[in-house]
Amino acid sequence: MQIIDGKLVASQVLEEVKGDIDRLKAAGITPGLAVVLVGDDPASQVYVNSKVKKCGELGMHSRKIVLPADASQEELLEVIRELNADASIHGILVQSPPPPHIDEAAVVLEIDPAKDVDGFHPENVAKLVMEDESGFVPCTPLGCIRLLKAAGIETAGANAVVIGRSMIVGKPMAHLLMSKQSNATVTVAHSRTKNLPELCRSADIIVAAIGRPSFVTAEFVKDGAVVIDVGINRVEDASAKRGYRIVGDVAYDEVAPRCRAITPVPGGVGPMTIAMLMANTVKACRQQTGA
Ligand code: NDP
């Protein structure tokens, strides 16, 4: 059984990205990422700060813009328009989830698709479906594909089951797996899927993006399957310093012994997301500057 080391693969991606950034900077161009946060949700603050910090480590320009929780939709759109027009910014992301009074779809539509490094704009969604590589693909599924490649997993002809159909993970993951790059046969499961354990037992590759701790148990997994666990769930744990610990969507201890390869949580998909965000920002910079 192979434990797919997301920290290691993410560090390799970041090394490549750093090389690209150094070359761009030598040509007088510094890639720039703007991260917009509305409100003071503690988890979102952690995510935003780690993205800004990573930009600094790589020598990339970053802007962190924090609006108060009661900022209006129009104020947020105005910030995005300003960033769209800012030539020093090549990638823009608005940290999710925004407060409930913000219309997230309208926000995504306002972002210049050329700067939409999260890959949420309909133009980029269309490019993913059309397999037009000039578009931006959401960072987490992009990271999952990179992990499969790094682990030497053959996807061509494999039966893959993706559990979850969100726009952020499940749907783009399914498209990437079925693309002519990966050539898997893909089934997408969700909360209305019948006989899910049986369906999953037919899978050579399972991608779990559900948001339920330890949902995928041993009965879902055939011997020799590859399991990618996207889940990040907090469960109470009195023995942990913070009073909780992070677990995935997969019951790792019982599933791992059956697997050919599996990603742990933490240390699997998680570190890949930020690495692919940096890679997308450099790609956006290259496209916008022609460098
Ligand atoms: P969503 O809540 O948007 O989607 C969850 C999906 O799981 C839905 O499609 C839902 O089905 C499906 N689902 C829920 N319950 C069941 C069930 N009982 N049986 C089958 N399917 C079910 O979550 P996200 O896609 O945003 O995130 C999924 C997980 O991945 C979360 O734990 C999240 O924290 C994590 N995540 C991790 C990231 C990383 O960087 N590693 C990045 C993004 C997310 P339906 O559509 O029918 O409701």
TrEMBL record:
NADP(+) binds at residues 164-166, 232. Pathway: One-carbon metabolism; tetrahydrofolate interconversion. InterPro entries: Aminoacid_DH-like_N_sf, NAD(P)-bd_dom_sf, THF_DH/CycHdrlase, THF_DH/CycHdrlase_cat_dom, THF_DH/CycHdrlase_CS, THF_DH/CycHdrlase_NAD-bd_dom. Pfam families: THF_DHG_CYH (PF00763), THF_DHG_CYH_C (PF02882). Residues 4-118 form the Tetrahydrofolate dehydrogenase/cyclohydrolase catalytic domain. It catalyses: (6R)-5,10-methenyltetrahydrofolate + H2O = (6R)-10-formyltetrahydrofolate + H(+); (6R)-5,10-methylene-5,6,7,8-tetrahydrofolate + NADP(+) = (6R)-5,10-methenyltetrahydrofolate + NADPH. The keyword Magnesium does not apply. The keyword S-adenosyl-L-methionine does not apply. Keywords: Amino-acid biosynthesis, Histidine biosynthesis, Hydrolase, Methionine biosynthesis, Multifunctional enzyme, NADP, One-carbon metabolism, Oxidoreductase, Purine biosynthesis. Residues 138-288 form the Tetrahydrofolate dehydrogenase/cyclohydrolase NAD(P)-binding domain. Its EC number is 1.5.1.5, 3.5.4.9. Belongs to the tetrahydrofolate dehydrogenase/cyclohydrolase family. HAMAP family: THF_DHG_CYH (MF_01576). PANTHER family: C-1-TETRAHYDROFOLATE SYNTHASE, CYTOPLASMIC (PTHR48099:SF5), C-1-TETRAHYDROFOLATE SYNTHASE, CYTOPLASMIC-RELATED (PTHR48099). Homodimer. Catalyzes the oxidation of 5,10-methylenetetrahydrofolate to 5,10-methenyltetrahydrofolate and then the hydrolysis of 5,10-methenyltetrahydrofolate to 10-formyltetrahydrofolate. This is Bifunctional protein FolD. It comes from Akkermansia biwaensis. The gene is folD.
